[in-house]
From TrEMBL:
<keyword id="KW-0233">DNA recombination</keyword>
<dbReference type="InterPro" id="IPR013762">
    <property type="entry name" value="Integrase-like_cat_sf"/>
</dbReference>
<protein>
    <recommendedName>
        <fullName>Phage integrase family protein</fullName>
    </recommendedName>
</protein>
<dbReference type="InterPro" id="IPR011010">
    <property type="entry name" value="DNA_brk_join_enz"/>
</dbReference>
Length: 692
């Protein structure tokens, strides 16, 4: 028995006058041995008695007064209901042992150590910093542990005590380089997710039809019929071979499993397995997995929907925090959510788990593959699962109150808010839905989605080893990088717009998302072209025209012949210009006075002149605009000046190049094919393709 325990027992037995004795250890309001319930359900037992009594196995001397003073602060920092067992382990297994092992070292080497929080001084900060740096490990990890101990002691000292001026641990900032995200790989994964969502819509329609037509096969036993020769069994019951009837029974099985009731006996379950199992004795032409998919969402369906939402919004963690019980969307331009047109927009809202701040994203509401429509679909798709969850909660509320039932009811309340519920017969009853554990679903199902994306590649892409490898490397977090690249390219390289879209507090964080090797390589190539153009102008003894630098930066094949055309009042497309220094304001609102036109959209300008050698340039421009029309939402295309430019080129083609229309169309279509194959780029700009 320890000295502390012995003294406490003697004090409890002998009736001593407390005013005449010295209190060595104050009475503890909070016990040092307690349990916590995390938000995910499991209990975590916490035992801090070794810091009071000492632990020879770990090498810690007991500091009873100090642990008593720190106890309330530690519990407050952990929280009344921590997010996971890992957050409790961080304090109990890492930070507190780090502090008390250092104090034990001080007592062994110096002969004294602080035994109360009031005894800590500024000089102890340098000693603790030296101790934590000697332990090794990652610099950021050391800094985080050091700061946590300082915060613990500062809060325990209270506002009346002088602050602890401890030196800080400075960590050199490392430039984070995000992995390359191939836009073609993201596009392939997106198409695979869309096909899974299409299957989900088909499963829902099939399930609704089955449930309307079917009856419980136990209530409608039909006349047995003789099976065909060669089939197992001599007779069969047609009622048990009807898919609609089996769907009704599947729904009851799912309800039993979630609610915890026993409305179906073991004989019925065995008979159901014999008809719908993987190795069914009497196959009915439909598997149990297909019947379950007609009743409730599958894990693959949830993962595909989450990926599409992440691609459109750039959200990763907030996707799992979409709360259907609160105002998770705001309609713009209409008040009827069921009468949304393709041009309507909607604002989505969610809470970032780490900061608890509300983040928003704006998207289109028309297509069923848009985030808003997908979440609404999942809300409808999971209605039956929510009904079962509420029944389960009602049963728990009717039972005697216990910590386990309260924990499960809190877990059910959290799941009812999430749109990402699914049912899987492989899970046990309590974990039928991983609605609050999105990371588990994504890590398990993303492999299948990547395989689907590779299997559905076009024949011309089947042998593209680089593309296949890029698809195989895709992670859920890469969708945020792809979203940042898309916004950056679509906004004319506006990093502040990307910062706003990603909800970053500091633009330095945004820069990390734009440090993909592919993007860095493209920027260096563009910079090299600009420098080479400027040096060529200097070597030739000519003044540097800003328009030349602009064209060299934005067009890969800009050369000496293009420069000669520009200075001869000819554009890159071969068209002439009657006044290249004064373009129309609606085409070039920011044109610098006296400089040559950098917009080069001569087909829409009143100064434009069509020459015969503009044939190839106009055909190439026509191909680029055709590609954009096919890959741009209709509402955006029809409201842009690009649609006017395409009509103008086709008008000139029919009037000026009427005799060569077939050759014009052939050249345009050939360029579109090369753009789709990745051999050419729209407007000779790789970022246009990367942004789609």
């Amino acid at each position: 028995m320890s000295k502390f325990a012995k003294a406490r027992r003697e004090a409890a037995i002998e009736p001593l006058d407390l005013a005449q004795i010295e209190v060595v250890v104050p009475f503890s309001i909070e016990p040092l041995d307690f349990s916590l319930v995390t938000k995910k359900g499991p209990y975590v037992d916490v035992d801090l008695r070794r810091y009071r009594d000492g632990d020879s196995c770990v090498g810690i001397v007991g500091f009873p007064e100090l642990i008593e003073e720190l106890l309330l602060v530690v519990r407050r920092m952990i929280g009344p209901r921590p997010s996971s067992p890992g957050s409790v382990k961080t304090w109990i297994s890492f930070r507190l042992p780090l502090l008390f092992m250092w104090l034990t070292r001080l007592k062994r080497e110096i002969g004294s150590a602080p035994v109360r929080v009031a005894e800590f001084e500024d000089s102890h900060g340098e000693l603790f910093k030296r101790h934590i740096l000697e332990l090794g490990g990652k610099p950021k990890g050391r800094q985080k542990q050091y700061s946590a101990i300082w915060s613990l002691l500062t809060e325990a000292r209270g506002d009346d005590a002088p602050p602890l001026n401890w030196p800080s641990i400075k960590v050199a900032e490392e430039i984070e380089e995000h992995p390359d995200v191939d836009p073609r790989a993201v596009k392939a994964l997106y198409n695979a997710c869309k096909r899974v969502v299409d299957e989900a819509f088909a499963d829902q329609r099939r399930g609704s039809a089955w449930l309307e037509e079917g009856v419980d096969p136990r209530d409608a036993e039909g006349e047995r019929r003789t099976c065909q020769k060669g089939k197992r069994g001599a007779v069969k019951n047609p009622v048990w071979h009807d898919h609609a009837n089996l769907a009704v029974l599947t729904k009851k099985l799912i309800r039993d499993r979630i609610v915890g009731t026993s409305n179906l006996d073991e004989k019925t379950k065995t008979k159901f397995d014999n008809h719908t199992g993987v190795v069914a004795k009497m196959s009915v032409g439909v598997t149990r997995q297909k019947l379950e998919a007609a009743i409730a969402p599958t894990p693959l369906e949830v993962a595909a929907s989450i990926l599409i939402v992440s691609m459109e919004t750039g959200w990763i963690d907030p996707v799992g925090n979409i709360d259907l019980s609160s105002e998770w969307y705001i309609l713009r331009g209409t008040v009827d959510p069921h009468a949304l047109g393709k041009t309507e927009t909607v604002v989505l809202q969610a809470v970032r788990p780490k900061t608890r701040k509300v983040v928003t994203a704006v998207g289109m509401a028309g297509s069923r593959f848009r985030s808003y429509q997908l979440i609404r679909f999942m809300e409808t798709r999971t209605a039956f699962l929510r009904e079962c969850l509420r029944e389960r909660r009602d049963l728990l509320a009717a039972e005697p109150n216990s910590e386990a039932s309260r924990c499960e009811m809190a877990d059910i309340d959290a799941r009812l808010k999430s749109p990402w519920l699914y049912y899987s017969s492989k899970c046990n009853r309590l974990n039928f839905s991983k609605g609050t554990e999105i990371a588990f679903v994504m890590s398990d199902q993303l492999k299948k989605l990547r395989q689907r994306a590779i299997a559905s590649l076009k024949p011309s892409q089947k042998n593209d080893a680089e593309l296949i490898a890029a698809i195989g490397r895709l992670k859920w977090s890469d969708m945020r990088d792809a979203f940042a690249s898309h916004i950056y390219a679509s906004s004319g390289n506006n990093i502040f717009l990307v910062k706003q879209a990603l909800a970053h507090a500091d633009v330095g964080t945004t820069r990390a998302y734009l440090r993909q090797r592919r993007q860095i390589r493209q920027r260096f190539d563009a910079f090299r072209d600009v420098v080479e153009t400027a040096l060529t102008e200097v070597d030739e003894g000519r003044s540097i025209d800003p328009t030349l630098l602009f064209l060299a930066n934005n067009y890969k094949d800009f050369g000496e012949s293009d420069r000669d055309k520009l200075f001869a009042y000819r554009t890159r497309m071969g068209m002439g210009c009657a006044n290249p220094t004064d373009p129309e304001h609606h085409l070039a609102p920011n044109h610098p006075h006296g400089a040559r036109c950098a917009v080069q959209r001569c087909i829409l300008c009143r100064h434009g002149i069509v020459f015969s050698d503009a044939f190839e340039g106009l055909a190439d421009r026509h191909a680029d605009l055709v590609w954009l029309r096919r890959n741009t939402p209709p509402n955006r295309w029809l409201t842009s000046t690009l649609s006017w430019e395409l009509e103008a080129i086709e008008y000139v083609r029919d009037r000026v190049f009427a005799a060569s229309t077939e050759r014009f169309v052939a050249r345009s279509e050939n360029r579109v094919v090369n753009i789709n194959a990745g051999k050419l780029f729209v407007f000779d700009d790789p970022e246009v393709i990367g942004g789609r």
